[in-house]
Amino acid sequence: VRKYKHHGTTQPSYRSGRRRVLSPTDEHTLVQKVQINPRTTAKDLMKMLEETGTKVSISTVKRVLYRHNLKGRSARRKRLLQKSQTTFATANGDKDCTFWRNVYWSDETIWP
């Protein structure tokens, strides 16, 4: 009522700034695809959107995922066994099972 009295119409007023390229449903589909398969690349998601008829850049896809708290990280590579563990295992390979039950492998990782 206040808007009608002030502007004389109930139509929504124009906003400043550019409209978003992706609709909320498009953003939701992107987030779902990444949650189903976390190894999906931004390029694959961009191609998927192009198939539906929406042309966006890779940076737009990354921005949408970042906005939904999905950040691209890669895991640090680490050897499964250290060299000292391997030499110990080969040197004591002929020992019986009771010896190996008392062996504890530690990678000296500090857990929070």
Structure description:
The chain is mostly helical and 112 residues long. The protein has a domain of 53 residues: Arc Repressor Mutant, subunit A (Orthogonal Bundle). The longest helix is centred in the first third of the chain and has 13 residues. The chain is elongated, with a radius of gyration of 28 Å. The mean pLDDT is 85. This is Transposase Tc1-like domain-containing protein. InterPro entries: Homeodomain-like_sf, Transposase_Tc1-like. Pfam families: HTH_Tnp_Tc3_2.
Measured distance between first and last alpha carbons: 57 Å
Provide mean pLDDT, rounded: 85
Percent helix: 40-55%
Residues in β-strands, percent: under 5%
Assign the CATH topology of one domain.
Arc Repressor Mutant, subunit A
Count helical runs. Answer: 6
Report the radius of gyration as a whole number of Å. Answer: 28 Å
Q: Which CATH C-level class of one domain is it?
A: Mainly Alpha
Major sheet: none
Secondary-structure element sequence? HHHHHH
Label the CATH architecture of one domain. Answer: Orthogonal Bundle
* Shape summary: elongated
Q: Quick one: how many beta strands?
A: 0
- Unreliable stretches: none
Q: Structural class of the helices, strands and pairings?
A: mainly alpha
Protein name: Transposase Tc1-like domain-containing protein
InterPro entries: Homeodomain-like_sf (IPR009057), Transposase_Tc1-like (IPR002492)
GO molecular function: DNA binding
